[in-house]
Amino acid sequence: MSPRGGKGPIHPATPPLSEPSAWHDISLTVNDEQVSAQVESRLLLTDFLRHRLRLTGTHVGCEQGSCGACSVLLDGVVVRSCLTLAVQANGRDLRTVEGLAGPDDPLTTLQQAFHEQHGMQCGFCTPGFLMSLAGLAEDGGTPSSDEIDEHLTGNFCRCTGYVNIRKAARQAFGLPDPEEPSDG
Amino acid sequence: MKPAPFDYVAARSVEHAVELLAGDTEAKVIAGGQSLMPILNMRLGRPELVIDIGRLDVLNHVRISESGALLVGAAATQTQLLAHPGINRGWPLLATAVSNIGHPQIRNRGTICGSLAHNDPAAELPATAIALDATMHIQSSRGLRTIPAEQMFVGPFMTALAPDDLLIEAEFPLPPAGAGWSFREFATRPGDFATVGVAVQLIRRDGVVADTRIVLFGVGGSATRVHSAEEVLMGSSPSRVENQVRAQLEAELNPADDVHASAGLRQDLAEKLTIEAIAEAWERCA
Amino acid sequence: MADDNSFGFFGRSLARVEDDRLLRGQGCFIDDLDIPNVVDIAFVRSPHAHARILSIDVTAAQTMPGVVAVYDGASVADRIKPLTNSEELRVPEGIAALNPVVKIQPAPILAVDEVNYVGQPIAMIVAETRYLAEDALEVIEIEYETLPAVLDMEAALEPDAPLALEGEVDNIGVHVRHGIGDVAAGIAAAAAVVDEIFATQRYVAAPIETRGMVAQSDPFTGGLMVWSTTQTPHRVRDHVAESIGLSVDDVRVQSVDVGGGFGQKGILVVEELLVPFAAHDLGRAVRWIADRHENLTADAHAREQVHHITLAADADGHLLAVKDRIMVNLGCRNMVGLVVPYNSLCHLIGPYKVHNVDLEATGVITNTMFTSPYRGAGRPEATFAMERAMDRLAAKLGMEPTELRERNLIQPDEMPYRTGLLDRRGLPQEFDSGDYPEMLSKAVDMIGLSQFRQEQKLARQEGQHLGIGFALYLEMTGLGPFEGARVEVMPSGRVRLYTGAPSQGQGHRTVFAQLLADALGVNPTDIDVVAGDTASIPYGVGTIASRALVTAGNAINQAGGLLKQRILTHAAEFLEAEVSDMQLEGSRISVKGTPAVGLSLAELIRTVPKLVGGSGSDGLSETSYFQPPNYATASGLHAAIIEVDPSTGRLDIRDYVVVHEAGKIVNPMIADAQVIGGVGQGIGGALSEHMRYDDQGQPITSTFMDYLLPVSSMVPDIRLDEIVCPSPTNQLGVKGLGEGGAVGPPAALANAVEDALRPFNIIVRSGPLSPSRIRDLVRDPNHS
After folding, report:
1. Does C518 share its domain with C376?
2. Model's pTM, two decimal places?
3. Residue C200: which of C116, C301, C323, C333 has the closest Cα?
4. Alpha carbon of C496: minimum distance to chain A alpha carbons (Å)
5. B265 to C692: CB separation less than 8 angstroms, yes or no
6. Residue C504 lies in a domain
7. ipTM of this complex
8. Residues C597 and C645 both lie in one domain
């Protein structure tokens, strides 16, 4: 299948004229690109990203903050985009899964680990996991096993049973498997 | 599950926010949105105006006052609090309680004051605020006033805030020198709202309990300070009065069955966690 | 054909071709489709469990901002036929001989007179955005007269019970009774009898992606194009065509990337007829994406069953008789007939030899969301009842549970084994292969049973409660009647494979390419798989019931072999050589021994139209359908070691072992992950998932804050081992294994809890084993 989207400047779609809630002009960076748009007050950040910017890698699983499928990096920290209004992203820096590796770039270490450890099946929750773990990586240094586990409990997966996701996270951060003897 | 229509305003200042609140008693304040957004998305609340105070620099602080109290502005996130260099040494009870809130993803947006103003009965912060004898600083068009934490949390999802009040800061005094503390919580899955939790601050003097604050949550109503159990401890030591403490908890608490836990489990957990917390706080006294 | 095709991709853990674009966020799930000017749909849903609709007024909604159209029951009643899942409701001849009751209770597309569950669709709003559609929902005025809600199965079966569905004579949707031998005699002769009630709670499959559909009319042909999350695209095509009154030739259903299905997306709901109807009626592209609230409350539920089970055994533990009265909560109407109840029935005795069996299943109609298959489709419920009963019997006889099981297992030299019962096709049930004793012994070894018993004793002395539990089951996989594969060489020389079995995460694009690569002699990297596009292959069944690998896999193998012949024949003609001298390897056909004499597939396909005196049967394409002659019987054994804290009800899984048997394994990495994924779901059901209603029939677990999915910390690193008993029912020797992982955990964990808390004398009769349930059981052992 040929790749879609993610290339070139983003031209946001405008809110429908029928929308009753007040519109706002916002300006923000999305995956290192400057974006200006008009958004209605009640538009969720998830819908702004997916339907106005056509960045459909961020997924919707629950719209009440439980599943983590919608996770993005807002000013470098991982947040649930379904619990954020688009207008609240004004002036902020946003990174979505599309911003991890460019369309012509190789996969990042984290993405590659998910591939090698078979840490994804349907792939729907995967962007959320990637962004949660990317948020952890933003702090620099190597997170502890506990920190990784804590981040992982904030994301649901229904397909994998998590075992391979944990393996992928450990591989990405260079942590040993529990059974393997560690040198430290 | 999309919100009903509302207009959004990013408050330009605290005065602006307060003015807007005075003009529309149905308006809702948003900072991190972790409590409000699910309500809006499910259309359980339909304010016509949502006032964002999350951008106000004047509210975005976690700092120590001249008197040594911890001041947390309304826009400060839970993650920000945990990152404060003095938090673990000065307010370990608060740090532990906050680290039990949800997941890092929630704490990155959720605010301390937002959680206090929302007063979910299963939330960690209201009970912790009472245990630490915190003070709420509230601004409205009528002026600035303060409320002690113990008077703030009136009932589940209900606080002493009037519709036009804005909680602008939570003040946590430095715990008394040598005070012991403990925070215990039981949740079905890590990061879930607590089934039951307890926050304890305790002062030991001359081998007995000189003062204590024991606050439970998830036991029915909102955060509950169990005075009767505290009285039993005063002038004694935890191991000597364990049964009496249990008896007081048994008598005073009346949790109900709900979809998350049976009344019996909540009662058992309340007793178990409280006894453990008291013992731990006692050990921690210097 | 296709025997020695050891080009060698079968059995290899090839990395998945699906991953790259999904990792980059370049997937195309249903809500990702960029369809210009698409409008969004929202539904008005019943707030009552049971009510008459007295009046409905949609006029206010029609003038709300951005609203394009509003439909209510009256406006569509003459234009869309009610939904009857004819495939699932069909009663095979052999089963008909049992005189089953299978009520036909078509689902109204939009409720007109009566609503039978909270969440039932009553009106459909089409608007410019979902936000605007939800605004319009709220101004629709509906007057109801509430009716008594029938919620409890026992109460529903009382003679004077109110009717959950008006116009029916009772609340029975399905009934079947089947058995062999003389159960009464078996019980009378028994040294030990266990008579118990074991229940499985209501679940929701809840994939992270909810159900959705996009439909639009082709601007030129007027035909309908439907993109869907369905697991069964051809069925959707047929139902849409029939319901709306279009030719099946003019409806096309295309699968997109799907975020998990697990059976919930394998059953049609009325919304999936309304969406294409709206597209057709309005001449516009329309979209419906269920939100999570709809997914949890108004999309298919599953698993609610109660078993009154009796096991009778002699003093040595040999089973003399098994009797089970099963109640299955069908929900608001009989949507899928005998599928789940009969699955429970014919899987109940599993791998045990029993000659006196009396099984009865009753599907009860209640004012709740309808139930349908979810990963296991009746087998987890049956396994729970049987494996719990076996443990109770072991306790009664003072025997190790594994010892009791060992004494009753069908032996490998008895395979193929006929139980004496009829399978779901109405034919004699025959297990094709398996080695249950070996499976048991491996699992016992891996979990370290004898060492554990020592550990357990010591731990108890310290006040620590450890327990071990086992669950053994088999599953008849590879359900027919058929699946197809069409393979063709494309103009570019690449090979394209079409099949009716789409993927929801199982890695079909990788695994099917492996199979075709071996059959054909082409690299998997030169193969593209298109699954679930009804325009590309005229007939298909879909991906449900652990069938895709067996049925589609073998169809692919067949088609691949046929295509290879065709390629070699054409090449021979072109090169003026003998067919027997030709070989195809890595997209190149050459003469054996002289590799320079040959051509690529790209070159060959170009020659086809121009071959002088071409054979008349030209083109490099083959279609093949595989009809499985029998089920392929897979099996598994789960063993769990847990620790329970009786004072808090906290349960920690210390070790979890699965020994599974699913014939020859095509891609071990993917196969293992399917098992583990199933175990994860099973653990969720065992410990925390419970879809609940209050006594008014209002769902009270309607968000993920209340319907508790398992999280990472709840699923330990599962240890796996396998046995391979190639299935004699198909050439590849494969069996299905998508569901097995979910079948074992509720029974294994319940058995472990009872074992851990033996000093307290509790009996675990139902799940989930939440902290409250465990604590309450300890405090009051008679608490069920």
Report:
1. no
2. 0.97
3. C301
4. 12
5. no
6. yes
7. 0.96
8. no
